[in-house]
């Protein structure tokens, strides 16, 4: 046994436990939720069996006879009802006669049941007939059964004899709790809304990433590298502001800029344009600002990473390349960029994942609007599962959406590692075990 | 190509590093800028290659004034102390880089790289990256990269400082061979006098931003202008005795040693002077016997090195063919070759 290997495992153990608890567990739970139809309606604990109007509607296609049957009240002369009747202390003859001549009879409607009761020898009054018939009402409509067997027993008592397959159908239609299902993924795959949201996300992530988080960040890092140190640090500090400002305030500043009484409106007013909300007045504008808002934050992060990576290149390499005759552009192209491969990979990977997963800036600025123009995947997942107008929060569908994000993130990371040839970036450890 | 520095000055902020330096390097000559660290020799080199701009003065390559030209337009080759190889490029790409940025055709680059690689004996390493090379191989790559575009001037900034002793010896002659073969004008910056003496046609010895003396190695060794020059050249180094002049003789201590020296005629009595004695001029041969005690003995294989303390406490160094009859603590009476000794005034000037 190599001791260094064991030691390595021991030392990584706390981190591994943390990773398991805080990274893998949530993903696993998300995956589990994604396979259910949990929502506000079903709750997250178990459910019950209830013959609601909705359940009857569901049954109408498969078992029309049963559906109409259980939709109506049913009356059954049974021991339970008789006992209750005795408790009412009416004439004893009612009970005796019903037990003797009508025990076990099932009446499909109240009228038929009451006809029999009225015909009893002791002649109950109309009020009594009503009272008695109530005791034998065995309708299942809107009754809640705690177990499946209760429901089936009731149905049997009512005279519906069901095959196991039919029982299964009824059980499914009447169950109010959540069930395992792959329906969420079918919705994701087939809904045109989802396709639109997916395209929105792809557009948002790729444009922000390419224009700002990588290209603009590189531009800032390289230009500040060639500036005198003091100018460069002022410049970098300014570009850091979007990142260090609390996001709520940062987005609020953008809103001040774009509101119909904001800076842009005031400025354009000078030229006779009527004030308008530039943030939300068209999908085009909304995207423009959403990408700027996120891009400025992302650019500062990339700038920091790239600047320090450029600083790490020995000064003599710049001297040497100048002496070798390289122009500034050639220096950037042949000396700086090749040595920034690793930081660029890191920033691309990191920012892709963070753009995919974070929606706070969009939520604070456009809320996905106007309409659903700037609704991106993670925001849609949030809206579906945790916060929406109708109030029925679909946890299962939302989890499925989140799971798609996880899968997309992993796939993209693997593709990036391939493109940047990760294997050539890492060197073998010098310590052999 | 001749290089001329005319009234060259360089300061960084308020720190003046070099003031009004005059230096001429002849065409095809190899000149060493020798001096202790911080004397401004690297600054001078960087000014010649254009990394630093002079504060004032002119720099001429041949008759062309390059003072305000950027490095890119000067056609110089530089070997940096750290070699400054580009880690992400192969040896071939590193050497070909100066041509690549000039947009020379790829086939031409390949051919020239192969030629120069053969010249510096690294033809079989072209596919490797710098990290896969030894120090000496990296050194050769740096040299090849500096030479490939046939620069007017080759500048070497402590090129041997990072090599082990044996390799240093080898590269010393190698660089000299290449410089001779290509006939290029070269400036070598070093703090190692052995390097300077063995590789260069002339040495410019520098101290705090000034050139103290320019001469061929042997002239400088045999005829140093100041005590600083004398102390910088020679290994093991020269030793100094502090005394005074008295009737054309050097006198050490109150009733001590008395050395008649021609250089001291005409110097007023009582003037403080110092006597520089190289280790090879104190030993078994020579005119004036001196008593002392061996306090340090070191064998260098072919020769032995001794430190001898004189009665007044000053130390003389002696180098002699190997002998095993003298040990540490022995009292000896060895002779000093007074004709070869240098006399310096108190300010270091040679008398």
Polypeptide structure, described:
The complex is a heterodimer of chains A (433) and B (351). With 433 residues, chain A is an all-alpha fold. Chain A has two domains: 49-174, no CATH class; 186-425, MetI-like (MetI-like fold, Orthogonal Bundle). Chain A has helices spanning 3-34, 53-62, 64-71, 79-87, 92-102, 110-118, 126-135, 148-157, 164-174, 183-190, 192-225, 229-244, 247-258, 263-269, 283-311, 315-323, 328-339, 341-357, 360-365, 377-385, 395-419, 422-425; strands spanning 49-50, 75-76, 106-107, 144-145. In chain A, the strands form two sheets. Chain A has a two-stranded antiparallel ribbon with strand order 1-4. Chain B contains eight helices and 20 strands. In chain B, helix 2 (91-100) crosses helix 3. Chain B is α+β, with helices and mostly antiparallel strands. In chain B, the strands form four sheets. Chain B has a six-stranded mixed β-sheet, with helices on both faces. Chain B has a five-stranded antiparallel β-sheet with strand order 13-12-11-14-20. In chain B, strands 15-19-16-17-18 form a five-stranded antiparallel β-sheet, with no helix packed on it. In chain B, 24% of the residues lie in helices and 34% in strands. Classes of the chains: A mainly alpha (433), B alpha+beta (351). Chain A binds chain B through residues 314, 316-317, 319-327, 330, 334-335, 338-339, 341, and chain B through 46, 49-51, 70-72, 74, 76-78, 80-82, 84, 86-89, 97-98, 100-102, 145, 149.
Record keyword descriptors for this entry.
heterodimer; A: 433 residues; mainly alpha; MetI-like fold; 2 domains; two-stranded antiparallel sheet; 22 helices; 2% strand; B: 351 residues; alpha+beta; 6-stranded mixed β-sheet; 5-stranded antiparallel β-sheet
């Amino acid at each position: 046994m190599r001791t260094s290997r064991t030691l390595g495992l021991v030392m990584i153990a706390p981190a591994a436990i943390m990773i398991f608890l805080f990274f893998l567990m949530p993903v696993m739970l998300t995956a589990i939720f994604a396979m259910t139809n949990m929502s506000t309606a079903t709750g997250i604990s178990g459910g019950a069996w209830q013959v609601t109007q909705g359940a009857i509607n569901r049954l109408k296609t498969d078992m029309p006879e049963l559906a109409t049957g259980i939709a109506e009240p049913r009356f059954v002369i049974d021991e339970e009802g008789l006992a209750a009747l005795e408790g009412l202390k009416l004439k004893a003859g009612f009970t005796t006669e019903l037990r003797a001549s009508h025990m076990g009879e099932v009446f499909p409607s109240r009228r038929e049941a009451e006809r029999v009761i009225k015909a009893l020898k002791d002649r109950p009054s109309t009020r009594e007939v009503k009272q008695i018939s109530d005791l034998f009402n065995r309708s299942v409509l809107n009754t809640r059964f705690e177990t499946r067997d209760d429901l089936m027993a009731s149905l049997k008592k009512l005279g519906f004899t069901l095959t196991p397959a039919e029982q299964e159908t009824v059980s499914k239609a009447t169950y109010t709790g959540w069930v395992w299902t792959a329906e969420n993924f079918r919705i994701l795959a087939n809904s045109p809304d989802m396709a639109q949201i997916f395209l929105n996300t792809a557009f948002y992530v790729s444009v922000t990433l390419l224009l700002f988080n990588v290209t603009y960040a590189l531009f800032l890092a390289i230009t500040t590298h060639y500036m005198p140190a003091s100018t460069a640090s002022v410049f970098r500090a300014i570009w850091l502001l979007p990142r260090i400002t609390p996001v709520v305030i940062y987005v609020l500043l953008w809103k001040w800029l774009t509101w119909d009484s904001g800076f842009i409106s005031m400025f354009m007013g000078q030229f006779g344009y009527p004030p308008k909300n530039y943030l939300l007045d068209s999908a085009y504008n909304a995207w423009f600002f959403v990408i700027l808002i996120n891009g400025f934050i992302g650019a500062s992060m990339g700038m920091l990473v790239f600047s320090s990576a450029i600083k790490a290149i020995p000064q003599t390499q710049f001297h040497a390349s100048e002496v070798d005759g390289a122009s500034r552009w050639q220096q950037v192209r042949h000396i700086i960029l090749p040595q920034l491969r690793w930081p660029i990979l890191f920033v691309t990977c990191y920012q892709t994942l963070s753009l995919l997963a974070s929606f706070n800036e969009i939520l604070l600025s456009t809320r996905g609007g106007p309409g659903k123009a700037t609704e991106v995947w993670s925001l849609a997942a949030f809206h579906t599962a945790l916060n929406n107008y109708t109030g029925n929060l679909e946890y299962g569908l939302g989890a499925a959406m989140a799971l798609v994000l996880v899968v997309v993130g992993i796939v993209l990371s693997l593709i990036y590692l391939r493109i940047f040839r990760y294997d050539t970036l890492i060197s073998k450890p010098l310590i052999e075990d | 190509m001749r290089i001329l520095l005319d009234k060259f000055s360089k300061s960084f902020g308020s720190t003046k590093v070099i003031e009004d330096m005059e230096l001429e390097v002849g065409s095809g000559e190899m000149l060493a800028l020798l001096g202790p660290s911080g004397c401004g020799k690297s600054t001078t080199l960087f000014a010649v290659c254009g990394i630093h701009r002079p504060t004032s003065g002119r720099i001429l390559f041949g008759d062309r004034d390059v003072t305000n030209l950027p490095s890119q337009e000067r056609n110089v080759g530089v070997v940096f102390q750290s070699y400054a190889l580009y880690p992400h490029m192969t040896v071939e790409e590193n050497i070909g880089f100066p041509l690549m940025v000039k947009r020379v055709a790829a086939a031409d680059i390949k051919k020239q790289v192969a030629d120069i690689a053969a010249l510096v004996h690294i033809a079989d390493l072209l596919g490797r990256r710098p990290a896969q090379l030894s120090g000496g191989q990296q050194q050769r790559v740096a040299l090849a990269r500096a030479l490939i575009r046939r620069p007017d001037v080759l500048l070497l900034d402590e090129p041997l400082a990072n090599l082990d002793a044996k390799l240093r010896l080898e590269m010393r002659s190698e660089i000299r061979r290449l410089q001779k073969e290509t006939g290029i004008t070269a400036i070598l910056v070093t703090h190692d006098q052995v390097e300077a003496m063995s590789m260069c046609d002339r040495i410019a010895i520098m101290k705090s931003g000034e050139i103290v003396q320019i001469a061929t190695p042997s002239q400088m060794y045999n005829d140093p202008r100041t005590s600083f020059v004398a102390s910088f050249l020679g290994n093991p180094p020269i030793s100094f005795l502090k005394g005074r002049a008295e009737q054309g003789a050097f006198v050490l201590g109150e009733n001590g040693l008395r050395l008649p020296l021609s250089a001291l005629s005409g110097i007023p009595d009582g003037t403080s002077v110092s006597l520089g004695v190289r280790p090879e001029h104190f030993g078994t041969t020579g005119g004036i016997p001196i008593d002392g005690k061996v306090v340090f003995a070191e064998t260098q294989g072919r020769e032995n090195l001794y430190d001898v303390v004189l009665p007044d406490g000053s130390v003389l160094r002696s180098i002699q063919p190997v002998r095993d009859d003298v040990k540490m603590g022995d009292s000896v009476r060895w002779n000093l070759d007074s004709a070869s000794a240098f006399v310096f005034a108190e300010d270091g000037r040679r008398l």
